[in-house]
Amino acid sequence: MTTTPETTTWTYDDFTSGELDPARWRILENRGADGETHQYRDRNARTHTGDGRFELTVNPFSRFHDTDPRQNNAKQMYQSVRRFAVPAAGELTFEVEMGVRTYGQIPHDLLDAFGTVALFDLESGVVLNASASNDTVYALVERLPVPGVTRPEEHYTHRVVSQVPTEPGRAHRYTITYRAETSEARWYVDGRLTYWARLPVPVAAFHAGMALFSARDLTRYSRAEREHGQGATAWWGPWRISTSVR
Q1: Stretch (H or E) spanning 79
Q2: Phi and psi at residue 86, in whole multiples of 5°?
Q3: Is 117:100 a contact under the CB 8 Å cutoff?
Q4: Cβ atoms of 106 and 133 closer than 8 Å
Q5: φ/ψ bin of 237: left (φ > 0), alpha (ψ from -120 to 50), beta (otherwise)
Q6: How far is CA 206 from CA 102, 110, 135, 197, in A?
Q7: Element at 120 (helix H, strand E)
Q8: pLDDT tens for residues 56-108?
């Protein structure tokens, strides 16, 4: 006997208010290698909302660090105030449109300047991102180095380029699903499955995030090679969340 899943869908934020709702979003902050708490905020950031989307521009990027990726990579990042629980017998789905335009980006460099739709769980260290630049759309699955949570041999980052045509500022509909029973995540772009992965650990809940990044390897590239005046604009909206329970 097959049980029909019971699906509930709601809008987390439709961005119709004149300012970003602090009851729904806050700037992400984390403890750096120096032991201090740092906000993922760039002094050059400009924001706009109220017309059905939230838009963030940082041009040029100015948040730099030469040794600690946590103080360098995310130029400005927002996390959902709510942590969304994964149904024990079902799926959790996030869907949002995102458009990205980069300025001065090294062509086809995945890490030079990009925007993201982010799902993350600091209790397991798992990150699921859908990312885009002027010329590339790609999926990311990562297990972060979180003290007390992950061991060094458990850290990894996997990026997979999607065969999705894009161009500066072009919007795509990004959907990421996670199924608890199989620990399987799936990425869709404009309704088409582009990637799937089975996670090494179960995830009980996710925060959603919106961010602009520049994340070239701190050990391979000099400051001048990593930060050469590039910047980006991205917009997101609306965020829709679904739970499907069997």
Answers
A1: strand 74-80
A2: -90, 125
A3: no
A4: no
A5: left
A6: 27, 24, 28, 16
A7: strand 114-121
A8: 999 999 999 999 998 999 999 999 999 999 999 999 999 999 999 999 999 99
Please give the DSSP secondary-structure letter assigned to residue 225: H
Tokens of 50: 């109220």
Residues 6+ apart with CB under 8 A from 190: 164, 172, 173
| Residue 77 and residue 209 in contact, taking contact as beta carbons nearer than 8 Å | yes
Is residue 33 within 8 A of residue 70, CB to CB? The reply is yes
Token reading at 167: 């161009």
| Token couple for 168 | 């500066």
Which tokens belong to 127? Answer: 């990150």
* Banded model confidence at residue 34, pLDDT cuts 50, 70, 90: confident
Question: Residues 102-122: what's their mean pLDDT?
Answer: 97
- What's the rounded Cα separation, in Å, for the pair 146 and 123? 8
Question: What is the overall mean pLDDT for the chain?
Answer: 95
Q: Is the peptide bond before 107 cis (omega within 30 degrees of 0)?
A: no
Residue 29 CA to its chain's centroid (Å): 15
Q: Which helix (H) or strand (E) holds 223?
A: helix 223-226
